[in-house]
Design a protein that fits this description.
By secondary structure, the chain is an alpha/beta fold. Helices cover about 45% and strands about 15% of the residues. The protein is elongated, with a radius of gyration of 26 Å.
Length: about 350
């Protein structure tokens, strides 16, 4: 039998324990979401795409969010990513791109920012042009002082080690504001399927509380011949994991595919072929984007928008009001002039086939 004093002490301990906040292994009170919502709504460091129609609906990519950029091979996925980098120049960004070198990334960014074509820039640098070399240095030091490009092999172990070094030894303990992986299928030692790779990457982004941008190549059936991107274009992974999903395609690929089919027929539809050949001349200079998934409350998806693609610099620009790319108009006029003067226009160079999968 315990004394009254002992009973009072025991009751006091129970009251003290009851007043302490409980720590659960799995359960999180829904009220905690209110604090998280306030923190996210007041986050001034969200990542924006640089496309106003997308940014209005997405309202920025916050910490722990995942943007999946999808498209078929050589559709311009990385090119769109570089456009995003331009919209976030001073941000702390870790860019994992084992399929590219840091030098190539720098040349492409410099061309987009300065308007000097990549071919011309590389030629001038090779000739020792000090002004061209300074353009490269200014891009790295002034425009992207906090952009870290990792071109080595991509694996969970490497990403963890590289991120830890970047945060603690370069950024004075500050987290990245954006982490990019170009592209998901290159991730090694994280499972053999796209889904398992996305699982690890999404967990990485949430654990680090960062905005995660992933590039993913579509399956051939979903994205071949420049077909429009849809929610199921992610090649068995990504669409379920993504907070946002943006599709990238080149309409010229779709046109070329249809032209090939028509020309292979015994009796080709010449009228349709002529129409497609006209469209091809225009869409040689376009890239098409759409927002196919948007989990932001109250946010909508965005239908396809055609943009002009500068084939010399890789820049993406608004189309003129008539929907005809400036490069088409310029080159069309130049071609007409050449017919009179018997001169070969410069725009017929191979540069028109510039690889757009930057």
């Amino acid at each position: 039998m315990i004394s009254t004093e002992e009973a009072t002490q025991a009751w006091g301990k129970l009251e003290e324990e009851a007043s302490r906040p409980k720590v659960y292994r799995h359960y999180v009170p829904l009220s905690d979401a209110a604090d998280a919502t306030v923190a996210e709504a007041q986050d001034m460091q969200r990542i924006y795409t640089g496309v106003p129609e997308f940014d209005e609906e997405m309202r920025g990519i916050g910490r722990g969010h995942l943007l999946n950029i999808v498209g078929y091979s050589h559709s311009g996925k990385t090119l769109f990513l570089l456009l995003m980098l331009q919209a976030n120049k001073q941000k702390r960004i870790a860019y994992f791109c084992p399929d590219e070198t840091a030098s190539l990334v720098l040349v492409k960014l410099t061309a987009m920012i300065t308007g000097v074509g990549a071919r011309e820039l590389e030629r001038r640098v090779s000739e020792g042009d000090t002004e061209a070399i300074e353009l490269l240095k200014a891009t790295a030091l002034v425009h992207f002082p906090n952009l870290a490009v990792f071109e080595d092999g991509l694996s969970p172990h490497f990403m963890e080690a590289a991120y830890h070094e970047l945060k603690n030894e370069v950024w004075d303990g500050k987290d990245a504001e954006m982490v990019i992986v170009d592209y998901v299928d290159l991730l090694q030692d994280a499972g053999d399927t796209a889904a398992t790779k996305f699982n690890w990457l999404k967990a990485f982004g949430k654990l680090k509380s960062i905005a995660l941008i992933l590039i993913h190549q579509t399956s051939r059936t979903a994205g071949s011949d420049g077909k429009a991107m849809k929610i199921d274009s992610g090649n068995f992974g990504g669409e379920q994991h993504a907070t946002f999903m943006i599709g990238v395609r080149r309409k010229k690929s779709s046109i070329l595919g249809e032209l090939g089919e028509l020309r292979s027929k015994a009796t080709p539809n010449q009228e349709r072929i002529q129409e497609l050949e006209g469209d091809l001349k225009i869409h040689e200079y376009t890239i098409t984007l759409n927002l196919v998934k948007n989990k932001r409350p109250g946010g909508n998806t965005v239908d396809e928008i055609d943009f002009e693609l500068d084939i010399k610099t890789g820049n993406i620009m608004r189309l003129p009001s008539d929907g005809i790319p400036n490069q088409y108009s310029d080159n069309h006029s130049l071609a007409a002039t050449s017919e009179t003067t018997q001169l070969t226009p410069e725009w017929t160079e191979v540069e028109m086939d510039y690889d757009t999968d930057f």
